[in-house]
Amino acid sequence: MPIAPITGRLRKGLWRDISVALGLGVGAGYVFWYGYHLKAVQRREEYYLKIEQERAQGQAA
Q1: If we measure between CA atoms, which residue out of 23, 15, 47 comes closest to residue 31?
Q2: Cα(57)–Cα(34) distance, rounded to whole angstroms?
Q3: Which parts pass through the membrane (predicted)?
């Protein structure tokens, strides 16, 4: 009993794999950007602002 040729499966699987990979990649990028990066930048900016304010108070005194 011969096996029927598998036609079109590679193409369908390829598109599914590419779609899933891009979807997960974009999702992970958003999680990193909004979940970690922006919060880290805000903390850093607040730290530098605090240092600048302390330096300004030291020079004024």
Answers
A1: 23
A2: 34
A3: 18-36
